[in-house]
Fold this protein.
Amino acid sequence: MITVDSLVKRYGTTTAVDGMTFTVQPGRVTGFLGPNGAGKSTTMRVVLGLDRPTSGQALVDGRPFRDATAPLALVGSLLDGKAFDRSRSARNHLRAVGAANGVGRSRVEEVLEVAGLTSVAHRSAGSFSLGMGQRLGIATALLADPPVVMLDEPVNGLDPDGITWIRRLTRQLADEGRTVFLSSHLMSEMELTADHLVIVGRGRVLADTPMTDFISSTSGERVQVATPDATTLAALLAAPGVTVTSAEPGALDVRGVPASAIGEVAARHGIVLHQLATQRLSLEDAFMKLTNDTVDFHGTDSRSVK
């Protein structure tokens, strides 16, 4: 597993990571989320021994990764999809990395197949598109069959087929008992992929929780109701702890009462319902609600630009 304990990393007067503590467990996909500048990439770099912590520690399998005798066989990582010799073919890139880590050529062919690159393995890596470069980077991460896989923005540049592939691949790796740790800005994709979330903002952990618990605890649920008797129904639902709002005539947004209870009230009073639907916030909605105060740069509506 990956253990981050009271981790602090400063660059001069800038504190990139400010006392983070969390554990990435095997057998599940852990999503690492946060606004730009939240400290995600810095934390990953410290875990991989690319940056030294100012204080605290980040361990893989109970020890600093830089002390690993066979690094690629312990952690497979993707931080930069273009981190390869552009003049080499994809196959020769993997063979070179494999030769330095005791990995044979048969395994190179296996990961080329897994990444969908067999047919273009003879081409120079420098000619690859962003998405193909991501595939090659992931193939490199998997080359030594590591028990821990860390991927930073793995779907960057991938087409829909590639995104679906990453989703299936990370699920398979976790199901095999591996530790899978990945960051992404695509909330809709993370919602489909991750089992557990570590959410950070301004270098601190804001949430460390299962995906389903995070969404439900952050958002609760609301019921959307469409009825020609909206005013009457709203009055009948009024009670302590219940919030009823209306954005347009005939539409109610109800919080604090389940849909079943609303339907029963409507039936007792002969109120016609055209819609009765329970709505839960998406991961993106819940994430924005939690991290809004930690975002340093907010855009503006184009209508305000003169």
Summary: The first strand starts at residue 2 and ends at 11.
